[in-house]
């Protein structure tokens, strides 16, 4: 394999890893600040919460190396040995590292302050088994003993077990804290549509089941104010629960034909490339790249619009059907969703009116999207060399000026909302956004 | 039906037959005449002759007379004999009897006609009724057939319905069965999964033991130096106190969250209550008061007083403090009632409006159209009048411009005058433009001059001051002589300047040369030109005003 995946966390600097090397750059100038070499191919990197340390996890060797930004010659290496390593993450205080060993045998909590090591047995082998509250005070851990699911709540400051309770799930699939840190959402495997809401002190607040037998929950998202919980399911619908009664207040459907005339549908169309005679000059490389990467722009399609629908293969597991991506905007006004049957479209819902607001139809399948942490602005990438930005004022398609192929597979906003990193398989680039002056 | 028609015909034919029968039967049986006489219509003249000659011949006069007498007496007529026995006929009674018989005949004929008419009528009625009857019978047949058809269809549909119900039930049963199958399979899978999981857990445990047993020295952390905690504090041991503290903190966090939410909800509640109160007030104000009261009285008398009390109470006290059930219910119920009343009221108004609208629609249209037409007529008249006025005025104007045909000279003169006028105007325009340019130039000069003068004046004042100082200093010797000199020159200079200024700036005024001091030639000339120009400029009026201009010019010349 040529290169590894890149992972980013924007804080002051910006770290990227290429095989063995960890490169730290300044966000504004992309100047290399530090360069570290690890022992093996890095699979995962994460900044600590105070941005002083970075951990680099190498799952194959079972090693985690931690580097310091302040003291470049400080080093730390955690070796799991024959226990193996499957996942690694920081604790919210930035001084403990939680390593999940192979086969999810146990979670080891290594402390960078003391020599103490803690073990947590029977962690659950699921996608989202560990969840920290936003303020970093509590950690929820999913466990499974004797074929039953449990949740343990720990206080992160001293790792004291606060609560331990069982959940009425068949096979817990994920847990997520509400942004206010008082409610924990626990949902079941996709074979059962069931989501449970627990309070911080372990009481079951409510259970919600939309239907039986069909494939259930695919993804969930809390609204930033903790007012709403959006549940995307395999039946191509998003159901929104409210935090007062934990009952469904509305359902968002994702049909392949949009008929409501109040919905704005932006369709990406290719601008026919205008090849001037002057441009036909050596070196032909430049021309080739401009030929391959055609400009595109958005056109407003007239409703009714029928979107490209991909019929999923019926007898395969984990079908590409249903709402796979869900994200609330940071101002709580919009919800962006993707229906995996209609992979080229992003649906943006107005939460204040609980109605479909905008549909963006792209030429290629949506790879990922992310909201700007400061304003209602959505950045989308579809695997080509363009990044698409949408805001209530309109949408724009931005071509990354790069030679050759640059297929953007994921993106990541800076916490200030001024720049967004665009990642392809081997390269990345940072897109800086000008801030509008507010008079 | 056709039978009836054919029946009527033979009657006539039988009648005609009867007539001939009479003639043949007459000779044989006179008494049978009675019956047949009644059925006979107006006898034809031909039959009459034969009939009359058949009854009485010369031989049986006596017999026939006596027979007639017998018949008449039996019919109730007086005897036609003069006396009871004898052979003399009482002519008068005979005539009377004849007359009576004629009258009787007429009556009988009329009666017969009537009867026949009625007979015909009845016949046609009968026809009509039979037609109706036939039609109704047909209709009845049809409807019977229809009913049968419909019943058949109904039966079919019912059977279809039943079959569909049955299908539905079957489907439901199948669905239920499938669901049961699914659930049983699910439980089976779960059971199997659990079994496999237990096995897996056992393997994990084993593996864990092996891993731990190996005492891998490799499982370690190698760190250069331990880092301090993020918050700078020292790590603490976990004790009961810390546990309690953690619990406390957790509950505090939860309580904070609940309190915040409650605050938000309270605020929302208060706002909504305010809105409801406002709505209630507005609804009450909207409703017509008369309608409200009787309704209130009839429906729920005490409620009104309660409502008033409520409004009074709730307006006085703090609404957001009253959040108990009863008050809440009262408020919502009262608003609901008011709203219903308002709705009814509005519906009534709507109905009224629609009725009025539909009823008086045409009238309104007609009236408005009439009005509209009247107005348009008026406006058209006005337009016509205006047009005429314009035409007449144009004509008058043209007439004025064009002089009458007999005065050619005046016409020519006027033409010439016009040309002259135009030329003069052009000349004057040119002059005016020149003047303007000159004025601009002069204005510039004057401003420069004014500036210069100002500067010079300043300098002069300074000089004067210096001079005066000098004078003061050397007072005794040169006092009077030098003073006179300087003041004179000063005055001269200043008067010169003043004059110049006056002449240059004031164009319209007639320069009153009251000063005896010789005026420098230049400004005078320019002023003359200026005045000349100004007079020309002023003479834009028509020729009639030439005189005052000339007068002005001459005046100027005089003064110069």
UniProtKB/TrEMBL annotation, chain A:
SMART domains: WD40. InterPro entries: Centrosome-WD_assoc, WD40/YVTN_repeat-like_dom_sf, WD40_rpt. It holds the Pfam family WD40. It comes from the Eukaryota. One of its GO terms (cellular component) is microtubule organizing center. This is WD repeat containing, antisense to TP73. It comes from Dromaius novaehollandiae (Emu).
TrEMBL record, chain B:
PANTHER family: AFADIN- AND ALPHA-ACTININ-BINDING PROTEIN. Keywords: Cell adhesion, Cell junction, Coiled coil, Cytoplasm, Cytoskeleton. It comes from the Eukaryota. Its main location: other. Residues 538-550 have a biased composition (Basic and acidic residues). The keyword Coiled coil applies. This is SSX family member 2 interacting protein. The lineage of its organism: Eukaryota, Metazoa, Chordata, Craniata, Vertebrata. The keyword Transmembrane helix does not apply. GO terms for biological process: cell adhesion; intraciliary transport involved in cilium assembly. The gene is SSX2IP. Pfam families: ADIP. Residues 286-312, 491-560 are annotated as: Disordered. Residues 491-508, 524-537 have a biased composition (Polar residues). Belongs to the ADIP family. Residues 126-213, 241-282, 369-396 form a coiled coil. InterPro entries: Adhesion_Centrosome_assoc, Afadin/alpha-actinin-bd. It comes from Dromaius novaehollandiae (Emu). It is found in: Cell junction, Adherens junction; Cytoplasm, Cytoskeleton, Microtubule organizing center, Centrosome, Centriolar satellite. GO terms for cellular component: adherens junction; centriolar satellite; ciliary basal body.
């Amino acid at each position: 394999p040529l290169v590894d995946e890149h992972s980013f966390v924007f804080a002051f600097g910006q770290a990227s890893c290429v095989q063995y090397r960890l490169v730290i750059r300044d966000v504004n100038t992309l100047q290399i600040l530090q360069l570290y070499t690890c022992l093996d191919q890095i699979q995962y990197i994460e900044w600590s919460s105070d941005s002083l340390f970075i951990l680099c996890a190498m799952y194959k060797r079972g090693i985690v190396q931690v580097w310091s930004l302040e003291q470049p010659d400080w080093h730390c290496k955690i070796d799991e040995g024959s226990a193996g390593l499957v996942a690694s993450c920081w604790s919210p205080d930035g001084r403990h590292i939680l390593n999940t060993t192979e086969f999810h045998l146990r979670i080891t909590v290594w402390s960078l302050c003391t020599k103490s090591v803690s073990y947590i047995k029977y962690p659950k082998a699921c996608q989202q088994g560990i969840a920290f509250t936003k303020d970093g005070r509590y950690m929820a851990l999913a466990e499974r003993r004797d074929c039953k699911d449990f949740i343990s709540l720990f206080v992160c400051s001293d790792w004291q077990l606060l609560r331990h309770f069982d959940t009425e799930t068949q096979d817990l699939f994920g847990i997520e804290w509400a942004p206010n840190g008082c409610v924990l959402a626990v949902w079941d495997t996709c074979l059962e549509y069931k989501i449970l809401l627990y309070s911080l002190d372990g009481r079951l607040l409510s259970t919600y089941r939309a239907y039986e037998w069909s494939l259930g929950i695919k993804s969930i998202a809390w609204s930033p104010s903790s007012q709403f919980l959006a549940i995307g399911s395999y039946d191509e619908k998003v159901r929104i629960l409210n935090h007062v009664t934990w009952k469904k207040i509305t359902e968002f459907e994702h049909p392949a034909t949009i008929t409501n005339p109040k919905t704005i549908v932006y369709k990406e169309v290719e601008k026919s490339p205008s090849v001037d005679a002057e441009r036909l000059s050596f070196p032909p490389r430049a021309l080739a790249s401009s030929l391959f990467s055609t400009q595109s722009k958005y056109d407003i399609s007239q409703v009714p619009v029928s979107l490209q629908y991909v019929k999923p293969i019926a007898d395969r597991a984990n079908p590409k059907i249903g709402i796979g991506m869900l994200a609330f905007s940071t101002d709580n006004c919009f919800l962006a969703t993707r229906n995996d049957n209609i992979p080229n479209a992003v649906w943006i819902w107005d939460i204040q009116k609980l109605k479909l607001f905008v549909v963006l139809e792209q030429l290629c399948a949506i790879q990922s999207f992310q909201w700007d942490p400061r304003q209602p602005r959505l950045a989308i990438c579809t695997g080509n060399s363009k990044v698409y930005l949408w805001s209530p004022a309109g949408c724009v398609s931005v071509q990354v000026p790069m030679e050759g192929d640059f297929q953007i597979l994921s993106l990541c906003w800076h916490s200030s909302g001024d720049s967004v990193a665009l990642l392809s398989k081997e390269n990345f680039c940072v897109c800086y956004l000008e801030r509008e002056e507010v008079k | 039906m056709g039978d009836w028609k054919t029946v009527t015909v033979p009657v006539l034919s039988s009648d005609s037959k009867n007539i001939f029968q009479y003639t043949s039967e007459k000779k044989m049986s006179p008494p049978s005449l009675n019956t047949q006489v009644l059925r006979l219509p107006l006898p034809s003249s031909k039959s009459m002759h034969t009939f009359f000659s058949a009854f009485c011949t010369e031989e049986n006069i006596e017999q026939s007379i006596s027979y007639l007498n017998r018949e008449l007496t039996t019919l109730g007529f007086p005897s036609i004999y003069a006396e009871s026995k004898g052979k003399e006929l009482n002519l008068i009674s005979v005539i009377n009897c004849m007359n009576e018989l004629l009258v009787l005949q007429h009556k009988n004929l009329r009666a017969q006609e009537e009867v026949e008419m009625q007979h015909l009528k009845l016949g046609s009625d009968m026809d009509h009724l039979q037609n109706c009857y036939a039609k109704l019978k047909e209709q009845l047949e049809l409807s019977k057939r229809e009913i049968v058809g419909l019943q058949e269809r109904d039966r079919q549909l019912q059977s279809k319905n039943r079959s569909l119900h049955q299908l539905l039930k079957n489907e439901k049963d199948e669905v239920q069965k499938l669901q049961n199958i699914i659930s049983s399979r699910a439980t089976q899978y779960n059971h199997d999964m659990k079994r496999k999981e237990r096995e897996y857990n056992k393997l994990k445990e084993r593996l864990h033991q092996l891993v731990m047993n190996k005492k891998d020295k490799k499982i370690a952390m190698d760190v250069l130096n331990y880092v301090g905690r993020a918050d700078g504090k020292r790590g603490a041991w976990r004790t009961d106190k810390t546990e309690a503290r953690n619990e406390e903190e957790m509950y505090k966090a939860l309580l904070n969250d609940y309190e915040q939410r409650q605050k938000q909800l309270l605020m929302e509640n208060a706002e909504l209550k305010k809105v409801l109160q406002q709505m209630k007030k507005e609804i009450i104000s909207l409703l017509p008061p008369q309608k409200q009261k009787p309704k209130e009285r009839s429906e729920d008398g005490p409620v009104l007083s309660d409502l008033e009390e409520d409004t009074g109470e709730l307006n006085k006290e703090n609404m957001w403090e009253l959040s108990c059930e009863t008050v809440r219910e009262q408020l919502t119920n009262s608003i609901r009632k008011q709203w219903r009343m308002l709705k009814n009221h509005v519906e009534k108004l709507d109905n009224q409006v629609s009725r009025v609208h539909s009823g008086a629609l045409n009238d309104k249209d007609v009236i408005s159209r009439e009005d509209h037409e009247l107005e348009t007529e008026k406006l058209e008249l006005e337009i016509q009048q205006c047009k005429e006025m314009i035409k007449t005025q144009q004509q008058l104007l043209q007439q004025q411009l064009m002089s009458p045909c007999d005065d050619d000279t005046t016409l020519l003169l006027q033409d010439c005058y016009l040309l002259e006028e135009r030329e003069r105007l052009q000349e004057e325009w040119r002059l005016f433009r020149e003047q303007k340019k000159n004025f601009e130039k002069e204005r510039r000069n004057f401003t420069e001059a004014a500036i210069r003068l100002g500067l010079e004046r300043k300098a002069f004042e300074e000089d004067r001051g210096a001079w005066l100082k000098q004078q003061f200093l050397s007072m005794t010797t040169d006092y009077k002589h030098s003073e006179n000199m300087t003041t004179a020159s000063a005055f001269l200079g200043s008067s010169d300047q003043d004059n110049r200024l006056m002449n240059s700036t004031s164009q319209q005024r007639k320069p009153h040369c009251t000063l005896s001091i010789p005026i420098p030639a230049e400004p005078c000339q320019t002023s003359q030109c200026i005045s000349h120009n100004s007079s020309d400029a002023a003479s834009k009026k028509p020729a009639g005003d030439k005189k005052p201009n000339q007068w002005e010019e001459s005046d100027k010349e005089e003064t110069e």
